[in-house]
TrEMBL record:
Keywords: GTP-binding, Nucleotide-binding
Pfam families with a match to the protein in the record: Ras
Bilayer disposition of the protein: Lipid-anchor
Subcellular location(s) of the protein: Endomembrane system
PANTHER family: RAS-RELATED PROTEIN RAB
Keyword Nucleotide-binding part of the UniProt annotation: yes
Family: Belongs to the small GTPase superfamily. Rab family.
One Gene Ontology cellular component annotation held by this UniProt entry: endomembrane system
Organism: Dunaliella tertiolecta
Entry protein name: Ras-related protein Rab-18
GO MF term set: GTP binding; GTPase activity
Length: 218
């Protein structure tokens, strides 16, 4: 499929459809670093944990469809659970991130985050993607690719591994692949996309609203 991208917090929302994608997972798994690499090809290993939520806007061209995607970064600490849970509402795609060097972060997807999705996601057809991050730390790996893929299949999710720390000569090919497969699934599901029509009208009328947070690799 053909694709083009245009990104940034203040990108104009001139799109046919809007989709909302949430990054979720425990503290320190690298959600913010993945987004930072996706949008600016930067990685800061000294980043502090995220507080609150924020989004980035990116426009994708999937064949003849122009899809505007808001990619939401959420706090991983459970003390922010009440705040984070509200962001699952209306999400067309949910990216569940764990750290391949910490088995407990994969367990947390099953014991906490998938339950949050089930409880608060309002779109029955929402596409879920499980991402095993930090594969550059091969000597510290605790979860094999096979285990990650089996976990994703068990819960009806797509699966991919990634490394926010690893740069690329073509960052928007290497790191944008994280969300590209998810966007294709969303773009080809007309019923799922119809649910964003009201949001599109509101965004065009009011403009995107920004929320503030403290950035960090969370």
């Amino acid at each position: 499929m053909d694709r083009q991208e245009l990104g940034g917090r203040d990108a104009p929302p001139s799109v046919e459809r809007l989709a909302k994608v949430i990054f979720a997972g425990g503290a320190g798994v690298g959600k913010t670093c993945l987004l930072s690499r996706l949008f600016s090809d930067k990685f800061d290993p000294s980043s502090q944990p995220t507080i609150g939520c924020d989004f980035q806007f990116k426009r994708y061209q999937v064949d003849d469809k122009s899809i505007g995607v808001t990619l939401w970064d959420t706090a991983g600490s459970e003390r922010f659970s009440a705040m984070t849970s509200s962001y699952f509402r209306g999400a067309h795609g949910i990216i569940l991130v764990y750290d391949v060097t910490r088995r407990d972060t994969l367990d947390a997807l099953e014991n906490h985050w998938l339950k949050e999705v089930e409880a608060y996601s309002t779109l029955p057809g929402a596409i879920k993607l499980v991402v095993g991050n930090k594969i550059d730390l091969a000597d510290e790996r605790q979860v094999t690719p096979e285990e990650g893929a089996a976990f994703a299949r068990k819960h009806g999710c797509l699966y991919q591994e990634a490394s926010a720390a690893a740069s690329s000569d073509a960052p928007h090919d290497a790191h944008d692949a994280l969300v590209w497969g998810l966007i294709v699934h969303i773009a080809t599901d007309d019923e799922l996309l119809k649910s964003s029509d009201h949001d599109k009208l509101q965004l065009e009328k009011n403009g995107p609203k920004r929320r503030h947070k403290k950035w960090g690799c969370c």
